[in-house]
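During the second year of the project, the team shifted from modelling isolated chains to modelling whole assemblies. The rationale, set out in the original proposal, was that interfaces cannot be judged from single-chain predictions alone. As a representative example for this report, we include one of the complexes processed in the last quarter. Its constituent sequences, exactly as entered into the pipeline, are reproduced here:
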Amino acid sequence: MRTLALIGLVCGVSVQALCAQVTANVEAGITDVQYDGFLASGAASISPTMRWQHPGGRGFFSARGTYLQFQSGRRSIDGSANGSWITPLARHWRGELGAAAGASDYANIASFSHGQVDARLHLMDEDRGGWIAATMGRSSFGGGARPVTVVAVGMWLLGTDKTMFVSLDRSFIGDTAYTDLRSSARWRRDRIVLEGVVGARVWSSGGGRGVFGEGSATLTLGRQAALVVSAGRYATDVVSGSLAGRYVTAAVRLGRITVRTPATAVLSGNSRASESHSSPSATDARLEIETRRDDDVRLTVYAPGATVVEISGDFTDWRPVALSRSPTTADAWVASLRIPRGIHRINVRRDGGPWMAPGGTTRSADDYDGEVGVFILP
Amino acid sequence: MILAALLLMTQVAAQDPRLERLDPDTRTAVAAVVDSAHGAGLPVEPIIQRALEGATKGAPGARIVAAVRRLAVDLGTARVALGTSASAPELEAAVAALRAGAALEVLAHLRDLRRPPLTMALSVLADLVASGVPADSAAAAVLALAPKARDADLVEFRRAVERDIALGAPPGAATSVRLNAGALDVYGANSAANNPNSPRPRSRP
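Output from the structure prediction step:
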């Protein structure tokens, strides 16, 4: 409880800024899909996505569109958006109010739209929790609108690099009703994210029934690019009008961009930290640390234009150690040293100049009117 | 006799060949601080390192002596917070956290919440504050993670905050977001295929 109270403290107090975390990307891919009752077809797709997240964790808004060009020449287009406002944590409880809307159109033949609001009550602990939810709204196919009601219950488990959900929901859309039991998981390690969902539709009247499962693998190529491969079978979503089918998709995701809303005026300045992450200039140096086995650590300093690069730190008894020029990477200087775990202090000097705190470390004032770089070796 | 004993202790410390890099007066003063710390059961290696750092940077002897004295005092303060069983790396990390602005009570609280070693938790706390995260926010975040997070989790948390800051997020916001990232993942999990945080794969027609 104390921990959760602290989380609440961080949520509610630490950030009063009008700052926002916005990510946006575009996914372009090719797919082979077979909707139930139709022939298999190839398609090309493009999907822009945007997500805004309150920096204090009090809500989010996301929107996504998809344009599909089928092998047959027909096209499908859809767009949807959803958002939630999340209450501050009260003991173990949090509330969430959300709204979602979307529309889709296939070849000017079939069009759907829906809008709904939902309320959730979350019971949360540090690494597990659950929720109950109720959703109400409308879904229309062509001109006829039908009421939507969904009740759901679920639980989740969080690990360091994995997340698991289990949910059970009962949906009523007009005279269609069905129950979905779904379990999903996500596992992340370094640049790879694996996601999967398995489920079953039961007690169905007009919504189909059976099992479904999907999986995807995302390989991050950099800050702004990723490869995504996904495949599986999914159930009909009567609310949004997506027809059950099976598919294989390969896509490139570009532009996971974080947009900053300036808010430095209300938070403590961080110019040094920002500088430490900037690209090295002709008078700068940036440190990269690679831990190998035991205490063997490879230090790489990127120092464009330098002819001599030295480091000095508590792991060298503050004796300058000249680095060797990397045979493979331009402007890179390397050394392998034995450095124990923990917090360390380091300075870098290029061409016999002043000792400076390299980028890639946290800069802090030393006791000698200068700066020292601090890094953690896990 | 006392003087003789002090001289003897000073000589013992001064025999550390690394201190030969200091001028004689500075070496004597630093050795005295080292001996005093040793006598108080405090780790001496950080003190020696701080002196060597000053020597490498060409600092005047007086500055070096002042720096090591201050460090010795801070190590003693850190030990009060962490207890006599705290290891040298823990105390050194605690000093960094205290100097960064963490309160003594936070260190004591951390000791109560987390099994030793606390080195990484303290290092992450110090590093967050040095990155510009407000001290109270950094402390709250580390204390929230402390009971169950592994050292690797803390480091990953720190890296995530660092990435966010590098991408332009205000440090406090980055910390808050990362602390809540797991919790946010659960929202909308059942309703939004277009939610980028949804566990449902998005790349499907």
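Chain A touches chain B through 122 residues (CB under 8 Å). The longest strand of chain A covers residues 245-260.
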